[in-house]
Amino acid sequence: MSAEARREQLIEAAVRVIAREGADGATTRKIVDEAKAPLASLHYCFQNKENLLLAVFEQLSEELPVDVDLPEGEDASLGHVIEQCLTRAMRWSVENPVRMRAMIEVTLWAERYDPELSVSFYDAFLKSSEAVLRRVDVPLPDEELHSVLRVAISLVDGLSLQMLTNGDKERTLRDTATACAMLKAFLDESARKAGAIGDSVIA
């Protein structure tokens, strides 16, 4: 088996063990047993458990969808884009509960042992999400836009935790639609006010 294939095998095994046992309970022995791989291979590919957990987070964060499909020939609103972002993220969470649980567990592990690292996790999400939103006209100052993004990320966290707790995927998607409608209404109203202010300045 190539080193790259072994890395992928160990990451997938770690995801399953972390989701079952938590990041602290996911020992290197449990992970290699899950992967049916020798312990030496984990140390060869990742050196230590910490590096493996970081690789798990990087893999899962790359899978979490943040991109959107902009309608052709139409001017998409910021509300439309953030609605797509939130809906796609939550659909991924609903369809991949084990992977979402592992992502949450690794984030909590980082917060306990390296708070700056957990902050960097969220900063990475903020930057990637902002890059997507900047594809359309953003009528908000940066500070307000970042506040909206933090709220959206909080919704993904909270709705995912509820789904993992109660197992009700259909309700989670209904609640996601409600959250999207609320955010979209706020953003549409903000855009309307910004347009009104712009018109008064021009007049």
What's the structural blueprint in terms of helices and strands?
Layout: H1 3-25, H2 28-35, H3 39-46, H4 49-63, H5 78-95, H6 97-113, H7 115-133, H8 142-166, H9 169-202
Q: What structural class do you assign from the helix and strand content?
A: mainly alpha
Low-pLDDT residue intervals, each spanning 5 or more residues: 198-203
Helix tally?
9
Strands, count:
0
**What is the molecular shape?**
elongated
Task: Write up this protein.
This protein is mainly alpha-helical. 82% of the residues lie in helices and 0% in strands. It has helices spanning 3-25, 28-35, 39-46, 49-63, 78-95, 97-113, 115-133, 142-166, 169-202. Helix 5 (78-95) packs parallel to helix 8. The longest helix is centred in the C-terminal third of the chain and has 34 residues, at 169-202. The chain starts with a helix and ends with a helix. Residues 198-203 have low confidence and may be disordered.
Question: What attributes does this structure have?
Answer:
elongated; 0% strand; 203 residues; mainly alpha
Brief summary of the model shown:
The protein has 203 residues and is an all-alpha fold.
